[in-house]
Amino acid sequence: MDKIINKIAQVIYDKKGSNITALDVSGYSTICDCILIAEGNVDRHVIAIANAIQDELRAEGFRPHRVEGLSVGDWVVLDYSQIIIHLFMPGLRDIYQLEKLWSFATIYDLKIEVAV
């Protein structure tokens, strides 16, 4: 699963997403094993990141069980069963503070390739 989590994080980074955090909630949640949270700059950017993630994971054979928020773009949720991805516009992420909700979770050490 680490490989897919890192692939998602890389797609977000490559699409100029920011504040990428992945939380291991496997020992605490029956819903999923990982929650990945990131930000886009504006609604269209959030939607573009979500579409890029779906395209990349579709190529790997994964399809989301549920997608919410693509019509508005301020908060998009991609549910891949074991991994749930939350993409926010910056102000909205601050309001909902999902990291505080899962403050006891372990933070993944993401391996993102940065171009120099």
Give the arrangement of secondary structure elements.
Elements: H1 2-14, E1 18-24, E2 34-39, H2 43-59, E3 66-68, E4 75-79, E5 83-88, H3 90-96, H4 98-101, E6 106-107
Parallel strand pairs: 2-5
Antiparallel strand pairs: 1-2, 1-6, 3-4, 4-5
CATH homologous superfamily title: Beta Polymerase, domain 2
Q: Cα distance, first to last residue?
A: 27 Å
What name is given to the CATH topology?
A: Beta Polymerase, domain 2
The strands making up the biggest β-sheet line up spatially as 3-4-5-2-1-6
Class inferred from helices and paired strands = alpha+beta
Helix content: 25-40%
Order of helices and strands: HEEHEEEHHE
Shape: globular
Averaging pLDDT over every residue, what do you get? Answer: 95
Cα-based radius of gyration, to the nearest Å: 13 Å
Beta strand %: 25-35%
Low-confidence stretches: none
Number of domains: 1
What does this structure look like?
- The chain has 116 residues and is α+β, with helices and mostly antiparallel strands.
- The protein has a single domain (2-107), classed as Beta Polymerase, domain 2, CATH 3.30.460.
- Helices cover 35% and strands 25% of the residues.
- The protein has four helices and six strands; from the N terminus they run αββαβββααβ.
- It has helices at residues 2-14, 43-59, 90-96, 98-101, and strands at residues 18-24, 34-39, 66-68, 75-79, 83-88, 106-107.
- Strands 3-4-5-2-1-6 form a six-stranded mixed beta sheet.
- A hairpin with a 3-residue loop joins strand 4 (75-79) and strand 5.
- Helix 1 (2-14) packs across helix 2.
